[in-house]
Design brief:
CATH architecture of the domain at 16-337: Alpha-Beta Barrel
Number of helices: 23
CATH topology of the domain at 16-337: TIM Barrel
Radius of gyration: 54 Å
Shape: extended
Strand content: 5-15%
Helix content: 40-55%
Largest sheet: 6 strands, parallel
Number of strands: 12
CATH class of the domain at 16-337: Alpha Beta
Strand order of the largest sheet: 3-4-5-8-9-10
Length: 553
């Protein structure tokens, strides 16, 4: 028997292939933390990445269910659970990518376990991690925070405790009504009262608390306590109305078939009747149907799904809800013509064709006439703006070609050509006075054209307008440049008198000693290298003036 292909064994010992849709039914309700212990011994059990990875490994080894979600009870949650969930999600991603060593090391499993899971993921198997949230009084006060930290793919909303008046413990005693240890209280409380309290608690949870799937709706009848059929149908209608309003799915729990009602034909028949009716009502109200095995061991994954498939076919339900990333996806068991039509992409939109103007009795349509009037008005307005005269009354009604011809002719007559400025103004602007220290003002365009004509006539050469105008405007007369420099030199000479400077720096007693030493260079020339370039010329000028001053004396 090959892995991944479901088989059944017949009475003669031969094997035949099962319906391939069995493997496609999603299992949205499983408990990886194991079987329940006695009520007094139940304690929180932390998740580990190995525990979750091996839960998925068994499904991959069988090849079914192809879609499966782990959803343990809130009273079993611990602070270690979010870290383990994130770790196993990382390991599943590595396995899907083909990194077997990374997946095995991350999840703490053997390499062959990672190889089996990797092969299953490549074949299209998908796994989600959620939680079964209920009203268990043993849950931690911050249990909802732990669930939120896990970032669950889906939440199964259920009720496992009822607040009743206990004969010994008094009022508001939380009764685990689906636990076999306390089933004797049904005789004390009564079946009708149990269902009334159950429906009140469930509808309040649906209205106020988060969830995606309503788990095992018929749980008060786990020990065979059914209300009257009319009352039960009323409760079914209330459930479907609440789920339709909140967008939640209703679970068909197969644990009753392979565990609770095993060997009890009467209860199995009742289970079939009520679930078939519930699925038909849900389909009429467009409420999704989910399927869960409620397995507490890997061997129960997808258990009794062949009976669930028969119910689905009889109720004509083809799509099953499965939580993924906090939303309800729908898995189709078979490809029908209606489903293919719904999932087919829409046909491409036809290329837009421009509608032609309506034509009637050989005349232009109303749209063309309106367009012609608009064009005629625009042309008339342009003509009036160009000529400065208001348009005549008949201009709006004139035809477009005539108005356009007028608009082309009149603006040419109305245009005026500006004359250039006279030449005298150009000369005055181009030649500033010698005594003026300010820069001349920029000339207008007319002056530039005049300057061009003047320079061309004088020089007889072909020069452009801009260089000629720039030279005339920016270069002053040579006399105007040299005059300020001579005046500055004269002022410097006046400030530094020659006799005092020569008497202080070059005494007469030192001159003969310099001659006896044999130095050819005079004293003023020795100090010349130490002076700047600007001071080198100073001794020559002063010496020249000194000699002149001596002659005067």
């Amino acid at each position: 028997m090959s892995a991944g292909v479901p088989h059944t064994r017949t009475s003669d010992g031969e094997t035949e292939a099962e319906d391939p849709r069995l493997a496609a039914i999603p299992d949205s309700h499983g408990h990886a933390k194991g079987e329940h212990k006695p009520f007094a011994e139940e304690r929180p059990i932390p998740y580990t990445a190995r525990m979750l990875f091996l839960w998925f490994y068994h499904a991959c080894r069988r090849g079914s269910p192809r879609f499966m979600m782990v959803a343990d009870h809130m009273n079993y949650l611990t602070f270690e659970d979010p870290a383990a969930v994130n770790l196993v999600r990382r390991a599943l991603k590595l396995a899907a990518a083909g990194d077997l060593y990374g997946a095995a090391e991350t999840a703490g499993v053997e390499l062959n376990h990672a190889a089996v899971v990797s092969e299953g993921l490549r074949k299209g198997m998908r796994y989600s991690i959620g939680a079964e949230v209920d009203n268990d009084p043993r849950s931690r006060p911050d249990a909802q925070n732990i669930v939120d930290a896990m970032r669950p793919d889906g939440m199964v909303r259920s009720v496992h405790f009822l607040a009743i008046t206990h004969p010994q413990h008094g009022e508001n005693w939380m009764w685990a009504f689906d636990n076999a240890e306390f089933k004797d209280l049904y005789d004390t409380i009564g079946t009708q009262t149990v269902w009334e309290i159950y429906m009140k608690t469930l509808l309040e949870a649906i209205e106020k608390l988060p969830g995606h799937i309503i788990g095992h709706f018929y749980v008060p009848a786990v020990f065979g306590h059914w209300p009257e059929d009319a009352v039960l149908q009323k409760y079914e209608d209330q459930l479907i109305a609440a789920c339709a309003e909140r967008g939640m799915a209703i679970e068909i729990n197969s644990r009753y078939l392979y565990k609770h009602y095993l060997g009890d034909d009467a209860q199995l028949k009742k289970f079939r009747t009520v679930h078939l009716r519930l699925m038909r009502k849900a389909k009429a109200k467009n409420v999704a149907i989910a399927v869960g095995s409620d397995a507490h061991s890997p061997k129960d994954q997808g258990a009794a799904f062949e009976r669930i498939l028969a119910l689905l076919d009889e109720a004509d339900v083809n799509e099953i809800a499965f939580p993924i990333n906090g939303r309800l996806a729908r898995v189709a068991l078979r490809a029908t013509e209606e489903l293919m039509r719904q999932q087919a992409p829409p046909p491409p939109a036809p290329f837009p064709v421009r509608a032609e103007a309506p034509v009637a009795d050989g005349k232009i349509g109303t749209q063309v006439k309106a367009a012609a009037k608009t064009v005629a008005k625009a042309v008339a307005g342009a003509v009036a703006k160009a000529t400065g005269k208001p348009p005549p009354k008949s201009a709006a009604k004139a035809e477009a070609p005539k108005a356009a011809a007028k608009a082309d002719a009149k603006p040419v007559k109305a245009a005026k050509i500006e004359k250039p400025a006279p030449k005298a103004s150009v000369k005055a602007a181009a030649r500033p006075s010698a005594t003026s220290s300010k820069k001349p003002a920029p000339r207008p365009a007319a002056a530039k054209s005049g300057a061009k004509r003047t320079e061309t006539k004088r020089a007889g050469a072909k020069k452009t307008v801009k260089p000629t105008a720039r030279k005339a405007a920016t270069r002053p007369k040579p006399a105007a440049k040299k005059a300020p420099k001579r005046a500055a030199a004269a002022r410097k000479t006046a400030k530094r008198p020659v006799p005092k400077r020569a008497a202080a720096k070059r005494p007469a007693a030192k001159r003969p000693a310099a001659k006896r030493a044999g130095t050819k260079r005079p004293a003023p020339k020795r100090a010349a290298p130490k002076r700047s370039a600007a001071k080198k010329s100073a001794p020559k000028k002063t010496a020249h003036k000194k000699s002149r001053g001596g002659a005067r004396r």
